[in-house]
Amino acid sequence: MTFRKKGSKNPPLLSLEFILQNHADFVACVGMFFVLGLMFEGTAEVSIVFITLQHGVIFPAAEAEAERATAPKFLYHYGAKDLATVFFYTLVAIIIHATIQEYVLDRINRRMQFPKQRQGKFYESGQFSVFFLVSCIWGTFILVSENCLSDLAVLWKAHTHNMMTFQMKFFYISQLAYWFHAFPELLFQRSRPQELSQQAVYVGLHLFHIAGAYLLYLNHLGLLLLMMHYFVEFLSHSCDLFYFSDEKFQKEFSLWAIVFILGRLVTLIVSLITAGFQLAGGHNGISDDSAEDVNVLAAKIAVLSSSCSIQAYVTWNLFNVQLQRWMEEDAPLQAPSVKKKRIKGRFCRKGTENGVATSNRLLDSPQMRKEKSS
């Protein structure tokens, strides 16, 4: 992505340049309308749909005792009202994006004075590094709090009665909102046409897999796979930031490439074991209605194919990035040699011209005229 530059002159009011430069302020005003709606009784019900999580159900106390719980649980499922909640938190993601851009990344760029061709990649890696780091910490906390790491059977089982906890649903809503906000950011950041399609596919793949895990109630499996994917992506963009600051960190990129390949292999193994073996339990005639195992053949094929597709796509991007950097490293080595040849040729021509002019002046000198006349 390329970053929009703020010119010294203010653009005309309500022009495209004015909207691009102040889009975060406009989005903040829209978000404030929903927040202020909570203060009035007539609009509070509408604002609550946008701000708070919807489709909550109180888990019955009798069934809660069967689940070894001391009090009723408040669980959630998905529904049409989630679209309103995702829309509101998309606005929040745009505001946070602009805040990090202005108060963190812009100051680092002014201090480091990156070349123009690297500024877009620097801003992109900086934004993704913050997002992936926060998501990894948040997702790991959810995995630990819901005993997903101690009881691996939770990975291939949907939650009781196809429900999810508050923190699990809020995590998925936030993830969907962040990746939805990436589409308008392509316009706000003025992405190049050759980068637009690649960025759109990258964002679309994340939305497809996160929404698939959310709608199929594969919340824990999707969360675990996301954490592995986000951790590798965080290392990737962190290495990019070090590489932009100093090219001597090229070795760290090679180290990350090894971690990247290992992360893809682990992700594929977990997907194959979970979807290929556990989700196939329905073919053995074993059905657990109380746990609501997701053992539909279509779901199994969708999970396997989607996991393999995104791993293949990100691996292909790795090779493209590495090839591009090799070309950038070879370019400075070839440019000076061409320049020297041009300079040398120019000097030779200049020297020849000077030599011809000098010889002509000597021939036209008075002494040479006398010798010719004698």
TrEMBL record:
Pfam families named in the record: TRAM_LAG1_CLN8 (PF03798)
Transmembrane intervals: 86-105, 126-144, 255-277
GO cellular component, one term: endoplasmic reticulum membrane
Localization of this protein: Membrane
Keywords for the protein's UniProt record, in alphabetical order: Membrane, Protein transport, Translocation, Transmembrane, Transmembrane helix, Transport
InterPro entries membership: TLC-dom, Translocation_assoc_membrane
Predominant location category: membrane
SMART domains from the UniProt entry: TLC
Membrane topology, from the record: Multi-pass membrane protein
Biological process per Gene Ontology, one example term: protein insertion into ER membrane
Domain TLC, chain residue ranges per copy: 120-329
Similarity comment text for this entry: Belongs to the TRAM family.
PANTHER family per UniProt: TRANSLOCATING CHAIN-ASSOCIATED MEMBRANE PROTEIN 1-LIKE 1, TRANSLOCATION ASSOCIATED MEMBRANE PROTEIN
Name under which the protein is recorded: Translocating chain-associated membrane protein
Gene giving rise to this polypeptide: TRAM1L1
